[in-house]
Specification:
This protein is an alpha+beta fold. The protein has 4 domains: about 80 residues, no CATH class; about 100 residues, Arc Repressor Mutant, subunit A (Orthogonal Bundle), CATH 1.10.10; about 70 residues, Arc Repressor Mutant, subunit A, CATH 1.10.10; about 90 residues, Winged helix-like DNA-binding domain superfamily/Winged helix DNA-binding domain (Arc Repressor Mutant, subunit A, Orthogonal Bundle), CATH 1.10.10. About 45% of the residues lie in helices and about 10% in strands. The protein contains 13 helices and 12 strands. The strands form 4 sheets. A 3-stranded antiparallel sheet has the order 1-3-2. A 3-stranded antiparallel sheet has the order 4-6-5. The radius of gyration is 24 Å and the shape is globular.
């Protein structure tokens, strides 16, 4: 092959690989900063035009890349929150990385709001402003900086803002606020990044009333009025056009596929399922998977994208740890059962595991440990789209059933009942 042709092929291959890397990186890190991964950010910056078009076409998501400010923001939007396999909460930077609770989210939002008008401030002044806002709002509990639990919640919120590059501690360390409210920490705020944290299509300022309907934040004008005649954007109430319905179905299908561990056909809307069954829809899925560097698995029961390089993977299953090991073992129980299995029944199975393996899972040996381990393991299965909770019985008991994707992890057993 002649030199120019060889170089041309090399450029095409490089462009393809960089596109796949950029897509999967932005899926894993919707707010990517230069500090997080300079090499990946450089790729996203270099391919920002193609990546912006890709996310807009396939998902209807807006990608903003700011080379000078050193960040890229993928504004992911989902209207079907109830269909998410499991929420992906913000995680604390301290300790075991526990999920944010309601209080931490509240303080995160309040601190971010205050910082949009503060270029430089101290942790003490910021805490005072947050406390003033809490006292003025009827539905927000007062902030008491004399309580360590409150200071810890604010520290977790500020550390997350630091991780996003929205604030920088130019003097002192945020964790010092844990020791007392008199800590001296000086912050510099990046108002551009703060503004990009919110990815709702509709600005909150457009919502009226004391307690507005927050679902209105997700209305997207490109899809026209909703099917029931209520405008989702600027429509005349006559309903969406045929092209708008197709666009909504395409974007909804791709959003699910790129966001969730597995997409079951039964969970798709009628329009999404119909679109996925067409030649156009199947071609779109395969093209998107190829360009993003995924392997697409298609079954009658649903669809799954496999990232062999684990670039876009935020949580692996199976994986290390007692909880995920227990989750894998409980799949056998769910798959072998004739119907849904109560959580109490799964806890009984875990009790047997603990008895048969006395040196295993020592942190769950206390009273109620089996129930805690079973509940955590089931949460893993639900989060990975492998199991689902049934509606609670009148007694309040909760049962779980396996989903079709769970059969990927089914094991063969020999004549003696052992794993093959």
């Amino acid at each position: 092959m002649r030199g120019p042709a060889r170089h041309a092929n090399r450029r095409v291959t490089q462009a393809r690989d960089e596109m796949a890397l950029g897509i999967r990186t932005m899926l894993a890190h919707p707010l990517l900063t230069r500090e997080m991964d300079e090499a990946a950010f450089t790729v996203v910056r270099r391919r920002r035009t193609e990546l912006t078009s890709w996310f807009d076409y396939f998902c209807g998501w807006a990608l903003t890349v700011e080379p000078r400010h050193g960040y890229a923001r993928l504004a992911k939007v989902r209207e079907d929150g109830g269909h998410l396999a499991a929420p992906r909460p913000a995680l604390r930077a301290r300790g075991s990385g526990a999920p944010f609770d309601r209080r931490r989210y509240t303080l995160f939002f309040l601190a971010a709001a205050e910082l949009t008008v503060l270029n430089r401030t101290t942790v003490g002044l910021l805490a005072q402003r947050v406390a003033h806002t809490c006292a003025a709002e009827e539905y927000i509990a007062d902030f008491d900086s004399s309580r360590r639990a409150e200071r810890a919640a604010l520290v977790d919120a500020l550390l997350l803002l630091e991780r996003y590059g929205a604030i920088t501690a130019v003097d002192g360390a945020t964790e010092s606020y844990l020791a007392g409210s008199d800590a001296l920490v000086l912050y510099r705020a990046d108002t551009a990044r703060l503004a990009r944290l919110l990815s709702a299509p509709v600005p909150p300022s457009r919502l009226g009333g004391a307690r507005p309907d927050l679902s209105a934040l997700l209305a997207e004008e490109r899809y026209g009025p909703s099917e029931d005649g209520e405008p989702t954007g600027s429509g005349d109430g006559s309903g969406p056009t045929h092209n708008q319905r197709l666009l909504r179905a395409r974007h909804g299908l791709m959003r699910r596929l790129l966001d969730d561990p597995v997409v079951h056909t039964a969970d798709l809307s009628p329009a999404e399922a119909e679109y996925a069954a067409t030649l156009t829809g199947r071609g779109l899925l395969r093209r998107a998977a190829e360009e993003a560097g995924f392997r697409l698995e298609e079954r009658a029961e649903g669809y799954l994208l496999v990232d062999a390089d684990a670039i876009a993977t935020d949580d692996r299953f199976p994986g290390e740890g007692h909880v995920k090991q227990t989750a894998l073992l409980l799949l056998d129980v769910l798959l072998a059962a004739a119907g849904p299995v109560p959580l109490t029944g799964l806890a009984h199975e875990v009790e047997g595991l603990l008895e048969r393996n006395p040196s295993w899972a020592r942190s769950f040996r206390s009273e109620g440990g089996a129930a805690r381990l079973a509940e955590s393991a089931v949460e893993v299965l639900v989060g990975h789209g492998l199991a689902r909770a049934e509606p609670p019985e009148p007694s309040g008991a909760v049962s779980y059933r396996p989903l079709p994707a769970a059969h990927r992890y089914a094991v063969d057993r020999d004549a003696f009942g052992r794993r093959a």
